[in-house]
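Thread: "does anyone have the structure for this chain?"

Original post by V.I.:
We have the sequence but no experimental structure in hand. Need at least a predicted one for the grant figures.
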Amino acid sequence: MLAQEPEYVFIVGTVHFSERSAEDAAAVIQAVRPENVILEVCRSRTAIIYDHKPQPGSDHAAEPNSMSLSGPSFAQALLRSARLGGNSAMVLRAALSAQAGRVSRGLGVRSGVEMRAARRAAEAVDAQIVLGDRPIEITLQRAWQALTWPQRLRLLGLLLRGGFADNSELNMNAVEALKDDDVITSVVAEYSRKFPQVVSPLLHERDLYLAWSLKRSKAVNGRPNTKEWGCVQARFIGDNGSD
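Reply from O.Q.:
Generated one for you, tokens below.
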């Protein structure tokens, strides 16, 4: 019998550093009680959805680290990411992590707060979690390969300067504004102007992948679900290399 697509899909727009987004994510899951919850995260970044390092013998998602890598150990996770995406992807990811760290320190909120809230809410209603994003190593490798060497150096310079810049202008109002369509369009337009080659691998290709994850989620888990909940983050370029 052919796999059926979900009958209902609920998509909630969020921002990775937003406590309000965490509340929204939990509220939707509690109200809808879906069979599956699809998160915009891949296997390599599953550490971001956990609150702390698990006890020995439990799930082996690593304690959160600056690059949000997951695995039995940071070293093994790093090697896995390098193997999938190559050294160039790891260089770009490190620079993006520095940028994310700046935002996290300025706001006092660890990135992915809404995904952790979604995971807890999903567990509370016995919903299965689907990792919906394309592997970040592939995304960054494609973005890196799309740039010329001068563009690569320029992008790394901008990210590293941003990673150690002053945090005084960061505030929650600015973060919440990223949910506004006009602000998102403006941010994407700015990056499109400076680095048009990376827009497709970072945004459009991943949008298609996430849509596919929503469509296939019922078949992945093999449950007779009728309700799905999808988490699609606002396109915040500084978040751990994922957006």
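V.I.: this helps a lot. Residues 8-233 form one domain.
O.Q.: and Strands lie at 8-14, 36-39, 128-131, 227-233.
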